[in-house]
Design goal:
By secondary structure, the chain is an alpha/beta fold. The protein has two domains: 14-43 and 288-377, Alpha-Beta Complex (Aspartate Aminotransferase, domain 1); 47-284, Type I PLP-dependent aspartate aminotransferase-like (Major domain) (Aspartate Aminotransferase, domain 2). It contains 14 helices and 17 strands. It has helices at 35-38, 47-59, 70-82, 96-111, 128-132, 137-140, 158-164, 190-201, 222-225, 252-255, 269-284, 287-304, 327-338, 360-377, and strands at 14-18, 21-24, 29-32, 89-93, 115-119, 150-153, 169-174, 177-178, 184-185, 204-208, 232-235, 246-250, 311-315, 318-322, 340-341, 343-344, 349-352. The strands form four sheets. It has a seven-stranded mixed β-sheet, with helices on both faces. Strand 2 (21-24) and strand 3 form a beta hairpin. Helix 12 (287-304) runs parallel beside helix 14 (360-377). The two termini are 38 Å apart. The chain binds pyridoxal-5'-phosphate. Pyridoxal-5'-phosphate is lined by residues 95-97, 100, 123-125, 175, 179-180, 208, 210-211, 236-237.
Length: 379
Amino acid sequence: MTGGFVYSEKPIAVERGEGPHLYDANGAQFLDFGASYGVAAVGHCHPAVVSAVQSQVEELTFVQASYPNSARDGLYEKLAAVAPAGLENVWLCNSGTEANEAAIKFARSATGNSKVVAAMQGFHGRTMGSLAATWKPKYKKPFEPLAGGFEFVPYGDEDALAEAVDDETAAVLLEPIQGEGGVNPAPEGYLQFAREATEETGSALILDEIQTGLGRTGALWACEKRGVVPDILTSAKGLGGGLPVGATLCADWVAEDSGPHGSTFSGGPVVSAAAEATLSVIVEEDLPENAASVGEHLQSKLRGSELPIRTVRGEGLLLGVEVGRGANAALKRLAMDHGILALPAGRTVVRLLPPLVVEESHADEVVEALESTLAEVTA
Ligand SMILES: *Cc1c(COP(=O)(O)O)cnc(C)c1O
């Protein structure tokens, strides 16, 4: 057995990346419209990130987080500057699931409660706590028992949420747009409702922006577009520009009583330098604006096309194209015949999650490829 045994490997060996493109050993080009699970938000090997990593790795590769370090402090400051107002307390870790583990622990510690309310179809990660907050039974069954105290409500249903949230609730944990669960945006007013329900009971509202954050939906954070500030916001995926970094941004009342958490690798200088450079690129190149406009263009092209698609959901450059049972076959043909790499979201949805640096011409390329591919697989 090889090291790849948990992944079903694809027959493309990727050796190089630049911007939205990946290349195999023979130089064949692929358009990475899944941004490698959303990580390549600023594109592959962005020069600013590469150069920040190169200088930092030579200066100081690692030092434990209890010694102040300018690279880590730079990231703390940068994150505090771009965080929704009131979420300036930053915990750094190495992945999305860890950012959510911390969020759950902090909320339990700060409220003294244990119950966590999460949503059906939600996805929050694969470690025991975040997995307990994840909906899909297939991901959980073989690993039970998971962490206890988790309750699920239908996403978008205000009455169900009102019923579930009470004085025993530590947190409500939601994605502003469910990514992995099929690209389902929160209905109008739902996050606001969750904000009010948690405020009334003294529980924490945790928004998982690991997929929706950093400009992908057309604003730096999806919650900003809805006028909601949570108590805890989690970020990861694109944050490190390709290096593994996660962040848990907390309100003062959460940070003040967050409990004895920790991690050896928290805020290492190299990943911190990479993340600070990545955030600077996102702000300076105005990538939220690019995501909004290219996303708009892509949506209107998809809707205006002759494609046999049922619906297009999402915002900015987080789009789900409902194609029915042919989704997996379509993804395979897109990759092998057209050099376009996209992602699934469940069995019926093609998920488009490109780097935020893509241009309208890349979107056109994808729509054309989808046209010929879907004509074949749904014929
Ligand atoms: C990817 C993802 C996670 C998990 O992140 P990992 O880095 O894989 O642990 C959690 N929540 C959401 C919404 C995600 O999209």
